[in-house]
Specification:
The chain is an alpha/beta fold and about 400 residues long. It has helices at about 5-10, 35-40, 65-70, 150-160, 165-180, 200-210, 215-240, 260-285, 300-305, 325-330, 345-350, 355-365, 385-400, and strands at about 30, 50-55, 60, 75, 90-95, 100-105, 110, 120, 125, 185-190, 245-250, 290, 310-315, 335-340, 375. It is globular and about 55 Å long. It has a domain at about 30-70 and about 85-150. The chain contains 13 helices and 15 strands. Strand 11, helix 8 and strand 12 (about 290) form a beta-alpha-beta unit.
Length: about 400
């Protein structure tokens, strides 16, 4: 069984020969650019520039030799670059004030202040930081005025005027075909997501849902119309080159519960996801669709599955007082879980390698039952995680016996 077969079998609840593993398939299963060189050095791999493909979260693109070393079954692409083969020539050197041997897509986006702080738009990274951040995490807290909204008239004009860039689509298809033919790993496509979610941040977005549900219905009807129009011109052409598509990132949970009542979330979001997914499946039935949603969303598992999503990530069972066993039992043969491999808030960053290995192996052994599981951390491997703990995490998956 090759990596692609292993991943797709698991998503479809079929038998697998070992636990399928992800690292860097998307920007929530990846690794910090500060942790990346330490991991490579610990594993004895050649020193290379860390390709910081997501500068907001400061994530590094894991190279093919690192994927090989950790037994990873997935490669990532956005149709422009990938880690299925060497794309380092596409990136330009940038050392983040001599803190990283790294390269980025566009160094001109950064401004360096006299004290060493690096600015990236409205976000900043002080000399002691390992990520960019913005005030209040980019979420407004002054809600005394009008709630922020998306202009529906402008969105209608955008839909009416939409026309695909045929040359860009041709180049993307050619690149995806090259990715597909260069690897037997599952190809994970990013960048073709739908914008359904909380408008204007967590506070603003939840208030809109509760106070103006009619507006949210109208907005998401338009998003469905736009998505169908776009996907008619995209999925149809590159459906044979990709295995998994990150369709939406819509964080719906806090550390303790969902942001809103599950029924309201279903009505305002998943009603419309379902329409989009039904259309995609009509033209690309073999492509697997993933929802990323952080937090305590145990009560949404059935809703997510019924809407047609194939995969749910990051499986944050450490939030909401539910165990990984409860998450698995609720999702069993309904939806594939991607993530949840270890307690990422305490055990992974603070525990010993032995503690990481023990818990991760226990989790993997249970989660792989009836298949429907792709192993990785709960969200990204952060800068503070010791390399020996990362190695222990992936060794646990490799050592898990699949019955």
């Amino acid at each position: 069984m090759n990596s692609r077969e292993r991943v797709l079998n698991s998503i479809e609840f079929k038998p697998v020969d070992r636990v399928p593993v992800d690292l860097g398939g998307m920007a929530s299963t990846s690794i910090s650019a500060f942790a990346h060189p330490k991991l490579r050095e610990y594993l004895g791999l050649k020193k290379v520039r860390s390709l910081v493909y997501d500068t907001g979260q400061m994530l590094a693109l894991p190279e093919k030799d690192l994927l090989d070393m950790l037994g990873v079954d997935v490669v990532t692409t956005n149709g422009v670059y990938t880690n299925a083969f060497d794309c380092s020539f596409m990136f330009q050197p940038f050392d983040f004030n001599k803190r990283l041997y790294a390269a980025v897509w566009d160094p001109s986006q950064f401004q360096i202040l006299p004290d060493g702080t690096i600015l990236q738009g409205a976000s900043k990274m002080p000399p002691s930081s390992v990520v960019f951040d913005s005030e209040h995490g980019g979420n407004p807290i002054d809600l005394s005025g009008e709630l922020e909204k998306i202009d529906l008239s402008a969105l209608r004009r955008r839909i009416k005027e939409y026309a695909p860039d045929r040359e860009a689509l041709k180049r993307k298809c050619q690149f995806l075909e090259k990715v597909r033919s260069s690897t037997d790993r599952a190809v994970f496509l990013n960048g073709d997501s739908v914008p359904i979610g909380l408008v204007g941040g967590l506070a603003n977005g939840t208030m809109l849902c509760v106070l103006e549900p009619e507006y949210m219905h109208e907005l998401n009807k338009l998003y469905v119309e736009l998505a169908v129009k776009q996907f008619r011109e995209t999925f149809y052409y590159y459906k044979d080159y990709v295995d998994i598509v990150m369709l939406s990132s819509n964080d719906l949970g806090t550390q303790n519960t969902t942001y809103m009542h599950p029924d309201l979330i279903d009505e305002l979001f998943f009603t419309y996801y379902k329409q989009i997914i039904e259309y995609i499946k009509s033209i690309a039935p073999h492509v697997k669709l993933l929802l990323h949603s952080c937090g305590a969303i145990y009560d949404l598992i059935d809703i997510v599955a019924k809407s047609g999503f194939d995969i749910l990530n990051p499986v944050q069972w450490t939030a909401g007082g539910r165990s990984y066993k409860e998450w698995k039992d609720r999702a069993r043969r309904k939806i594939c879980l991607c993530g949840g491999g270890v307690d990422s808030q305490y055990v992974l960053p603070l525990g010993t390698p032995e503690e990481v290995y023990t818990q991760a192996k226990e989790v993997a052994s249970y989660m792989i039952q009836d298949s429907g599981f792709v192993f990785c951390n709960i969200h990204n491997l952060l800068a503070e995680v010791p390399p020996e703990n990362i190695v222990a995490l992936y060794k646990a998956a490799a050592d898990t016996v699949v019955s």
